[in-house]
């Protein structure tokens, strides 16, 4: 194997993962058999399973040797296998990835990912069947000519998309984010896309998406997935999501759970004070959701380390404490079983690219740092899992 800085870093990362796996991990990394008794399982997956929970992460497609959050990167693969009992493709099931145009599908990347996950006994969630925002639909879909009977053409396009994806994976995928981020946080209303305009409005479009998914994947958990922050300034968004969920119930639309993405944002070093200030409204929102009979899934947990100093020590401690406080509230809801991180290491997190810190210091949003070394956030997740009420 040719040694490059890239795969050198990957090996360093693998060493860090192996190190936290104890002697068994070190032996595995060195290619040794490991003849002694197996070390006690210390991964997050084992800890979660013991409480009746599941913990997981997004992952990505990558060519062998690519330094990204891919299963093809041995260091990342080792981490996913150790800590996760559930995976989700970060981008590769989105329309932008699957649909080069209105008639074709390209499943090559997602297929490679689910095949790797299956081979390693890791279930995969589907994200997502419809990202209901013009910005995140492929460009061709926003300029598509729906012809003389637009409602019928739009319906055909949506039904064909969802049916094709769900039938292809059958029982291999048991939970889908059917609709992603349909509510505009600015006013709580529903977005319009070219598809929904042709189809007769956003409600008709979302309802059709869920009904089609139920038919095409009858055994799967169907999730409405949205940003759902507990930070101040989200009241309109919460109200809009509640209204949408109430509407689904009133119309008999088959939606099983709310996907609470959980891209949470620290509010300063006083995490205890922040949590005390946020908790009440947040619980009222979750109470309203669960009172309607919806399940909860944490689909995309990570932390934007805002309003915190650049110094790594206090920053990591605040991120960990904030995560712990958030998970403690969430685990109080029996309707929650699955918690997925939006990436395991700071190295690949989307946040750095899309929302860098104003002071230019690298963000630290994930449980492992950029060198794959576990951070206080990982310990906080483990502690929250250990303290979670047991699921039956
Ligand atoms: O794959 C192309 C590559 O070929 C091209 O060279 C490059 C140049 O920009 O772009 C690459 O695509 C990028 C893709 O990530 C894969 O890296 C897109 O530009 C970029 O927009 C895309 O960002 C993703 C974003 O969703 C939009 O799809 C992030 O990785 C992903 O973390 C983020 O995830 C979302 C969830 O799906 C929904 N909830 C919020 C969450 C965070 O924004």
Task: Produce the secondary structure layout.
Blueprint: H1 5-20, H2 22-29, H3 44-50, E1 54-59, H4 74-83, E2 87-89, H5 95-98, H6 108-119, E3 124-131, H7 139-142, H8 150-169, E4 173-180, H9 194-199, H10 202-216, E5 221-226, H11 235-251, E6 257-260, E7 263-265, H12 271-291, E8 295-304, H13 312-331, E9 336-341, H14 350-354, H15 376-387
Parallel strand pairs: 1-2, 1-9, 2-3, 3-4, 4-5, 5-6, 6-8, 7-8, 8-9
Helix pairs in contact: 1-2, 1-4, 3-15, 8-10, 12-13, 13-15
The structure holds ligand G3I.
Task: Write a structural description.
It is a single chain. 45% of the residues lie in helices and 14% in strands. The longest helix is centred in the C-terminal third of the chain and has 21 residues. The protein has 392 residues and is α/β, with parallel strands linked by helices. An eight-stranded parallel barrel has the order 1-2-3-4-5-6-8-9, surrounded by five helices. The protein has a single domain, classed as Glycosidases (TIM Barrel, Alpha-Beta Barrel). The N and C termini lie far apart (48 Å). The N terminus is likely disordered. The protein is globular, with a radius of gyration of 21 Å. It binds ligand G3I. Ligand G3I binds next to loops.
């Amino acid at each position: 194997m040719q040694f490059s800085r890239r795969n050198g870093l990957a090996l360093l990362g693998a060493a860090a993962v192996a190190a936290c796996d104890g002697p068994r991990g070190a032996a595995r990394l060195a290619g040794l058999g490991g003849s002694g008794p197996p070390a006690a399982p210390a991964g997050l997956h084992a800890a979660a399973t013991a409480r009746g929970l599941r913990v997981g992460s997004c992952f990505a497609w990558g060519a062998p040797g690519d330094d990204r959050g891919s299963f093809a990167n041995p260091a990342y693969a080792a981490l996913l296998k150790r800590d996760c009992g559930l995976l989700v493709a970060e981008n590769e099931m989105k329309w932008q990835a699957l649909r080069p145009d209105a008639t074709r599908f390209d499943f090559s990347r997602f297929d490679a990912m689910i095949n790797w996950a299956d081979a390693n006994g890791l279930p995969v969630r589907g994200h997502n069947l419809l990202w209901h925002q013009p910005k995140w639909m492929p460009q061709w879909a926003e300029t598509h000519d729906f012809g003389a009977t637009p409602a019928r053409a739009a319906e055909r396009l949506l039904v064909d998309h969802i049916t094709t994806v769900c039938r292809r994976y059958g029982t291999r995928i048991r939970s889908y984010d059917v609709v992603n981020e349909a509510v505009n946080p600015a006013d709580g209303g529903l977005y319009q896309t070219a598809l929904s305009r042709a189809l007769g409005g956003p409600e008709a479009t979302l309802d059709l998406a869920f009904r089609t998914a139920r038919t095409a994947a009858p055994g799967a958990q169907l999730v409405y997935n949205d940003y759902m922050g507990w930070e101040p300034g989200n009241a309109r968004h919460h109200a809009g999501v509640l209204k949408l969920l109430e509407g689904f119930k009133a119309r008999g639309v088959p939606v099983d759970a709310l996907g609470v993405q959980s891209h949470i944002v620290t509010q300063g070093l006083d995490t205890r004070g922040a949590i005390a200030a946020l908790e009440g409204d947040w619980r009222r929102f979750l109470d309203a959701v669960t009172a309607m009979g919806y399940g909860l899934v944490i689909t995309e947990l990570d932390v934007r380390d805002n309003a915190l100093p650049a110094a790594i020590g206090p920053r990591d401690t605040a991120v960990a404490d904030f995560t712990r406080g958030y998970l403690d509230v969430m685990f109080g809801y029996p309707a929650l079983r699955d918690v997925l991180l939006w990436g395991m290491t700071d190295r690949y997190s989307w946040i750095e690219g899309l929302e860098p810190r104003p002071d230019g210091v690298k963000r630290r949003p994930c449980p492992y740092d950029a060198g794959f070394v576990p951070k206080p956030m990982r310990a906080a997740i483990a502690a929250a899992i250990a303290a979670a009420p047991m699921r039956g």
